[in-house]
Amino acid sequence: MSVASVGEIVWVLGIVAWYVIRYPFERRAKRVQVVSNARTPSETIGLAAALFGLAILPGFYVATGFPQSADYPARAWSVALGTIIFALALWVFRRSHKELGRNWSITLEIREKHKLVCTGPYALVRHPMYTSFLLMGLGQAFLLSNWVASLAGLIGFAILFFLRVNKEERMMLENFGPQYRTYMERTKRIIPYLY
């Protein structure tokens, strides 16, 4: 088995694990009443870009090998590093969901009895779910030896993040006021101690 194939298999397993982690939270979230919704067309575009870059385009590449002209030689160190980064992404993703519990939502929503979560990964960054997507994109960049498929995840993440994060923080400020402002002052957005 080639190094490139190992990277592709690890990527596929990572995407399956991502869905396995998310599914039960998605089911539970449907049972909790939404009090406020800040969904916009730009949010839909961001979510679609992330889905396309982190799943659809690389999945198409893994299934078909297209575009083969953008392939480059796979390296064992790159696949090993990508595996570690993707595993870390899944860990952060799971912990973020677990800490949010009934507050979790795929879109910008405030749920009934919504509480500000400041524990677990939320003690270090305000948006660890985005941190997990950033790590997934980085892991994908090291796992897939194709310029188009490998970089699509980071591009998709960036589109989602920059279209959505300011709106999300405004929504949290409107709902939690000074409590959220204090939380913002002691945490970074997605990279602990940096940004």
UniProtKB/TrEMBL annotation:
<dbReference type="Pfam" id="PF04140">
    <property type="entry name" value="ICMT"/>
</dbReference>
<keyword id="KW-1133">Transmembrane helix</keyword>
<dbReference type="GO" id="GO:0016020">
    <property type="term" value="C:membrane"/>
</dbReference>
<dbReference type="InterPro" id="IPR054851">
    <property type="entry name" value="Isoprenylcys_mtase"/>
</dbReference>
<feature type="transmembrane region" description="Helical">
    <location>
        <begin position="45"/>
        <end position="64"/>
    </location>
</feature>
<dbReference type="InterPro" id="IPR007269">
    <property type="entry name" value="ICMT_MeTrfase"/>
</dbReference>
<feature type="transmembrane region" description="Helical">
    <location>
        <begin position="6"/>
        <end position="25"/>
    </location>
</feature>
<feature type="transmembrane region" description="Helical">
    <location>
        <begin position="141"/>
        <end position="163"/>
    </location>
</feature>
<keyword id="KW-0472">Membrane</keyword>
<keyword id="KW-0489">Methyltransferase</keyword>
<dbReference type="GO" id="GO:0004671">
    <property type="term" value="F:protein C-terminal S-isoprenylcysteine carboxyl O-methyltransferase activity"/>
</dbReference>
<keyword id="KW-0808">Transferase</keyword>
<protein>
    <submittedName>
        <fullName>Methyltransferase</fullName>
    </submittedName>
</protein>
<feature type="transmembrane region" description="Helical">
    <location>
        <begin position="76"/>
        <end position="93"/>
    </location>
</feature>
<keyword id="KW-0812">Transmembrane</keyword>
<dbReference type="GO" id="GO:0032259">
    <property type="term" value="P:methylation"/>
</dbReference>
